[in-house]
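Support reply, case 0932

Customer input (verbatim):
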Amino acid sequence: MNQVILIKYGELTTKKGNRNFFIKTLTNNIEHKLNNFNIKIVKDLSRMLIFFNDNDFSQINAILKNIFGIYTYHLAYITNTNIEDISQKILEVLSTKTFDTFKVEVKRSDKSFPYDSPTFAKNIGALILKNIKNIKVDVHNPQLLLKVEITSKNTYIYTDTFKGSGGYPVGSQPRALLMLSGGIDSPVAGYLALKRGVKLDCVYFEAIPHTSLNARQKVITLTKKLINYTDTINLHIVNFTHLQEEIYKNCHQDYVITIMRRMMYRIMEKLAKKYKAYAIVNGESIGQVASQTLVSMQVINKVTSLPIIRPVACLDKLEIIDIAKKIDTYETSILPYEDCCTIFVPKHPVINPNLKLCEEMEKNFDYETIIANIIENINTIKIRDIEDINELL
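Our regenerated output:
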């Protein structure tokens, strides 16, 4: 039986003049992810078809579910648009299924077809009841839902529906930089940013010897988890040791986290300019820690003019953990290797910092020269999905 993967765009169909751009981006992403398979893609503004070798479906299915821009997809059977061929194909398909109750849904885009959708659905239902014994119709909770989509060229018949990841295709928005700390929240924030089509690079602040190489490896592993949803991520490793030590020497203990975050944002802005990124993404959640109160966020934000995207800002910790488990980052995130944000947390960090006091303390050391040196010595690791796939083969 001729099978094809039928993709529904979902949110992409809300686009008007630029829908072609989104569909082309999605097509490119699918072709890249399925580069190792013999496929052919045919698309229009309402659906996409992937022709494939039948034996490859389980592997292709595992990849498609992680490609943003796909709302649902179906393993469909394709036949000619005429009543005899459609009827024959439906009986052929259902002969491989086991069910007691069923429902038929018909969608007819070919208006030259002799029956409207409700009438043809009733006709197909009668055909099934006549040819398959001991079954009945259940329009509310059927064991098997048969869908028939009639177009001028072909008709698609399917009973299997797979949920896609939704969102926009990665690359339909420009690049942003994700502050990837190694905790639970920031990988989830990265995943949610990718889901909105944002192309991501990651930035990791380390303070060796205060942080370990194990902590760096943890972040590399998290980046590889995120690569399931995109093609390439540049992981920029920032040597933060000197600047962090100067902060602790020259700033009031209660303010070290606030000053440290302000310095990180200064570095992020310079890196964004260097790597042509349009925003900063991080895993801050309102009120979760001292640097994430609204007052703290306002004081920290003052050092940059870039948009700060906080995808998990209004989620509670349990909601964030649920997503982390879903995308398989949770177990890595809870490994006991501390990052530079947690190793020197004061007993009573300020939750309502004073902007002028921050600016006065920052005059105590030459942070601009230190930051310039940091930018000149960025260590970048390029992580590609195709390399990871080849390693597994």
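We compared this against your earlier run and they match. Two observations from our side: Confidence is low (pLDDT under 50) at residues 388-393. The chain is about 40% helix and 25% strand. Please reopen the case if you see a mismatch on your end.
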